Each structure stands twice: as C-alpha cells, then as structure tokens.
Amino acid sequence: MAVTSPAAALRTTTFRVLTAGWALTNFADSVLSLIFAVWVTDLTGSAALGGATFAVFGAPAFVAPFLGRLADRVSRRRMLVWTYVAGAAVLVPLFWVSQASHVWLVYVVAVVYATVAYVTAACQSGLLKDMLPDESLGHANGRLAAIDQVFRLSMPLLGAAVYVWTGPMPLVAAAIAAFLGAAAVFAAVRITESVAADEDPRGFWPEAADGFRHLFSTPPLAGMTWTILGALAAVGLVNAVAFAIIDHLGLQAALLGPLTTLQGVAGLAAGLLAGRLMIRWGRVRVFTVGLLGLAVGLVPLAGSSVVAAVVAMGVVGFSVTSAVVAFVTERQVMTPARLQGRVGAASHVVLNLPGVLVTLAGAAALAVVDHRVLVLVNAAVCLVCGLLALRLRAVAPGDDAPGGATA
C-alpha cells in the first residue's frame, strides 16, 4: 500500500469502519466493568464480594494462550463477529438478577464478559498488521489508545449516574446493543487477511506458548516486555493505596474520580501524539521516556501537595499511555502475521495480570506499611525499569531514526 504519510493509511473507509466497530466494542467492554462490583455490593451488602468481581475479571488470562492460538488458525474477522454475538447473548440472563442468591450468575457472566477483551486483543493486532504498512501501525495504535481513554474517562461517571438513577438494566441493554453493533460492523466489512497457520505437529501447548516465547526472546521486544511488566506490576501497588493517597492529601475520597479523569485526559493526549513521537524518536526511545516519566510522575504522590499530585497524575497518564502504545507497536512490527494472535493474547496477560496480583498484595501490605513507602518503592521500580530500557536498541536499521518506524 503506497501512502504519502504514515497517517494516510488510516483515512481509508475500511479502517474508519473498523475503528467504529472497535469503539462500539470498547463501549460495551467498559460500560459494565465498574457496575458489576457496585451491583454485587448492593445485592449482598458485602464490599468484599463486590471487590471480588475485579479478581474475576483476571480469570480469562488463564485461557489467553488458547484464544491466541485460535486467532492464528481462523479468520480473525469472523472470530470477532461470533465473540461479540456471544458477548451480547451472555449478558441477557442479567435481566433476571434481582437478589443476593443470583450473585453467582453475575460472576459467571463477568468471566465471559471479561474474556471478550482478551479475544479482541488476540484478533485486533493481526488485523491491523494485515491492513496497514508497518510505518502506520504507531498512528493506528495511538488512535485506538485515544478511543480507549475516552471511554475510561466517560464510562465510570456515566455508568454510575445511570446506575443510581435507573439501576443496572439500561446499562446491560446498552452493552448488548453495542456488542451487536460491533458484530454487525465486522460481519459487513471485508478485509484481506493473511493465510491461517497450518496444524502444528508439536501439539497444542508448545504452539500456544509461542506467543510468550516470542515476547521474551525477540530483541528488543524481550527487554521491553520485561521492563513494562515490572513497571505496570508496580503501578498496581499505587492502585492499592489510591484512597490512602487521597486521604493524606486531605481530600475527600470522591475526588479520586476527577483525579483519575485528569490522568485519562493526559492519556488521551498521549494517544493522539504517540504516532508522531515514534516517527521522530523511534519506538524504543518513546517507550523508554514513557517508563522514566512514569517514575518521575509517581514521586509527588508520596507528598502532601495537592497541586503536585494533580500534575503528577497528568504525567503518569501521558507516560503510561506512551509506553504502552510504543510497546504494542513494536510487538506488531516484530511479529509475523500469523503469530500475532498468540503474541497479542500473551501481551494482554503481561500488561494486565501482574498489576491485578500486585494490587491485591498491596492492599494487604497497606495494613502494616505506610502508603508513602509503597509509592516510593513503586517509583524506584519504575526508575530501574526505565534505566534498563535505556540499554535497549532497535534491531531494524533506521528504527530510531527520524521517519524510521519500519522493521
């Protein structure tokens, strides 16, 4: 595909239609993510049972290798269509949930609901790789990250308002409609996909593990994987002490929402700028600066200045989004077309599961360790990860040169 600029490939009708489909998916994925916990808490009167829904969301990580392998063996477009139809169907039983004895059903639905995001991660990367030249992937990932931030900003507030006003059922209906809309988009659009992988004589587990093997053995992707794993796992520690930070700043707990919104706004800006930054500096350099910026941004959260904390939240949002977009783009460029599913699913586990586990550990540690110590430990870990990333070098000639986003 001949393009005059990396962003030009994103102006095709097909990419715009797919972007609309992924926006619908993102809405459906996010509109109920917080509401499940609130709903369970209201039904049972137990904050612990409500909080357990967040752990349930991590369960699909254990089937991620299977989902990635499947995405490399079939049409990814059709896989998304059937997944979104299934996502809509599994939400229907929620209309009958009305008492504490039905909570088990909410948990079951939450597992399937969370699985949809893992399927999207397994399929989206390969579809982008098939559609776009390598030099356009950074702009595409930046745009999709910006869409993700828009929903992260709006859905918690909108969902909570609707829930308080009318209860969960309109939100369930909206998620079902969005999933069906996304399924319709992917059923209608036509994409020339790469040839599906053949049967692997090694068997299921070696083939499924190829995604993790590729992530942790391909330079510079391996170094980027280890460092972002460490940094995002450490961020889970800050998530665990978020309310303690707010309390130390002398603010009401309700102000955590606006502060998180500020972080999302900065992440939105990073998504819009990431493609240009990678063209100018290269993917590895943007990734490294993102990790170092994260370390710097976390330090003020251990202090007492509200102004410094507000600025810090913006720095954290911009830095995390920049690092993730650069990592995802490097992963796509360095991965063959029909390994994209397994590598995409594996990286989704790397980016999400460690943070969930560390958040649980951090919540327990907060009982015996001052939250400021935990924040500074987090910042130190991110600094070490950033310094290690400074040693990484792009493999492809010109990757770190201006305009050299190819591999």
TrEMBL record:
<dbReference type="InterPro" id="IPR036259">
    <property type="entry name" value="MFS_trans_sf"/>
</dbReference>
<keyword id="KW-1003">Cell membrane</keyword>
<keyword id="KW-0472">Membrane</keyword>
<keyword id="KW-0812">Transmembrane</keyword>
<feature type="transmembrane region" description="Helical">
    <location>
        <begin position="252"/>
        <end position="274"/>
    </location>
</feature>
<dbReference type="GO" id="GO:0022857">
    <property type="term" value="F:transmembrane transporter activity"/>
</dbReference>
<dbReference type="Pfam" id="PF07690">
    <property type="entry name" value="MFS_1"/>
</dbReference>
<feature type="transmembrane region" description="Helical">
    <location>
        <begin position="373"/>
        <end position="390"/>
    </location>
</feature>
<feature type="transmembrane region" description="Helical">
    <location>
        <begin position="79"/>
        <end position="98"/>
    </location>
</feature>
<feature type="transmembrane region" description="Helical">
    <location>
        <begin position="349"/>
        <end position="367"/>
    </location>
</feature>
<feature type="transmembrane region" description="Helical">
    <location>
        <begin position="221"/>
        <end position="246"/>
    </location>
</feature>
<protein>
    <submittedName>
        <fullName>Na+/melibiose symporter-like transporter</fullName>
    </submittedName>
</protein>
<feature type="transmembrane region" description="Helical">
    <location>
        <begin position="20"/>
        <end position="41"/>
    </location>
</feature>
<dbReference type="GO" id="GO:0005886">
    <property type="term" value="C:plasma membrane"/>
</dbReference>
<feature type="transmembrane region" description="Helical">
    <location>
        <begin position="286"/>
        <end position="303"/>
    </location>
</feature>
<feature type="transmembrane region" description="Helical">
    <location>
        <begin position="104"/>
        <end position="123"/>
    </location>
</feature>
<feature type="transmembrane region" description="Helical">
    <location>
        <begin position="309"/>
        <end position="328"/>
    </location>
</feature>
<feature type="transmembrane region" description="Helical">
    <location>
        <begin position="47"/>
        <end position="67"/>
    </location>
</feature>
<keyword id="KW-1133">Transmembrane helix</keyword>
<dbReference type="InterPro" id="IPR011701">
    <property type="entry name" value="MFS"/>
</dbReference>
